[in-house]
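SAMPLE LOG
Freezer: B-3
Tube label: C17
Construct: single chain, 303 aa
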Amino acid sequence: MLVIAALGLSLTSYGQQQAQPLAPTLDQHRPATAAPTQPAPQATPAPAQGVTPSPNPSYNPTYNPVFKPGYQRPITNQYGRPLGQGQPIRQWVQGESVPNAQNIIIILDASESMNDEINGVPKMTLAKQAIMQTLGNLPPNVRVGLRVYGHQVVSRGLFSSGGKNCQQTELIIPLGFNNRQEINQRVQSIQAVGMTPISLALMRSVSQDFYNSPGENMIILVSDGRETCDANPCDVALSLARSNVKVRVNSVGFGIKDPVAQDQLRCVAAATKGRFYDAQTAAQLADGLNKSMTSVNAKIVGH
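STRUCTURE (predicted):
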């Protein structure tokens, strides 16, 4: 036991004697500057002969490529997104946030008087054609929807002048970015058969149609006559204005000879800071709709 203890003591003393020079030895090999330095960047390997290195934009955020002569940049839309060759324009997702979004509800008169003809063509047919043409001029950041009134008759006969027939207004196509073709298809099936509840259509549209759709709101009202139910659209528009409702109404009177009907539509537009367009022909109807849309387009371009 004494021999083992002595041997252990000798080994410990020997280890301490050998460990003492290690600290100064490391200090001797340290660089002269004690301040920490950043690791040197790795050198980019030289490209093989005859091969041009391709830049990496993700490595350098300020990368600005210089294209060779004759290079054609991709065609882009107004938001800078590319339009692929032979591919459709990028479709917007319902409810997606879009800069400077505009919301338009077209209210179409489908009352029985829209079957009257202008130059041998029913006014309803001409109105459908004008709406289809106008939809093609809308920019992609405009939500559009379609509401109709007078497209259904619930009761006929003695009590057909009011009641349930004056409740017939419906949002056929809700606001959306990708629904132009759907509106064109659905509008073809609308029949002019009923009453003219303009007031109810306006109130329903303002209170329901723009829900959860941020942006500026507009109604384009296309009608060929006066209110035929127990209400006054002028009073409704004035009430909306006093309530500070942010909806502008552009009204288009189509083939209207009745001064009372024209005054109602003028009042609706004036009360909501919109415009009234008197359209006696199909060309004037298309012009009135296009001018209503132009006011939206101009506001978008002006932003």
